[in-house]
Write a structure and sequence with these properties.
This protein is 58% helix and 0% strand. The protein is mainly alpha-helical and 196 residues long. It starts with a helix and ends with a helix.
Length: 196
């Protein structure tokens, strides 16, 4: 039997972990001198100076290609930073509409149907034809099978209904004027009951 088969799972795990740590330490020792040489910074490099409002360019001279990173400096006032960012985000680069907004469309005008007859219109015509057939059957007239004759009669009924609706709307519109005129006429007349 091999050594691995006599080992318990816990001791095997411990041995493999120790081997992995040794490999990792040896790799770090090899890489560490190379990293130290690359990361050594010259002593002459200084931190960049803190920019203030006076150091910033005029906002009118900025466009979408300008460098706005200076406005993010801690020395720049919050008001100037906000104005610069507002100028940046209002530029044509950031002000693109994707056209997917549902509220962008104009819902105040509707496309005319023209010659299109919807299912609801067809159903309405069929119902009117059925009513007309029933009326003709009640009067004892023979039912006309010619759909053109029935449609002409339905159109006449519809036009008559529309004219009735328009007349009612005109009467309703004139009614408040008549009521106002009647109330002013009653206030002008003396009250005969109070004179006695």
């Amino acid at each position: 039997m091999t050594r691995e088969s006599k080992e318990s799972p816990l001791s095997r795990w411990s041995r493999r972990k120790a081997e992995a740590q040794q490999v990792e330490e040896s790799l770090q020792e090899e890489v560490k001198p190379a990293l130290d040489a690359e990361t050594a910074l010259p002593a002459e490099i200084e931190a960049p100076p803190v920019l203030t409002d006076a150091d910033m360019p005029d906002l009118d001279t900025l466009d979408e290609n300008s460098d706005y990173s200076g406005f993010m400096s801690q020395g720049v006032s919050e008001e100037l930073r906000n104005l610069a960012l507002r100028k940046l985000f209002r530029s044509s680069v950031f002000n693109i509409r994707d056209g997917l907004d549902e509220y962008d469309e104009d819902y105040t005008t509707f496309e005319k149907l023209g010659d299109i007859v919807t299912c609801d219109m067809k159903h309405h015509i069929e119902m009117e034809q059925e009513r007309l057939r029933e009326k003709l059957a009640e009067k004892g007239e023979p039912a006309a099978n010619d759909s053109a004759v029935i449609e002409d009669e339905i159109e006449g009924d519809i036009e008559h209904d529309i004219e009735d609706d328009i007349a009612e709307e005109i009467e309703d519109a004139a009614a408040p004027e008549r009521v106002a005129g009647a109330s002013s006429a009653t206030t002008d007349e003396p009250d005969n009951n109070n004179e006695q």
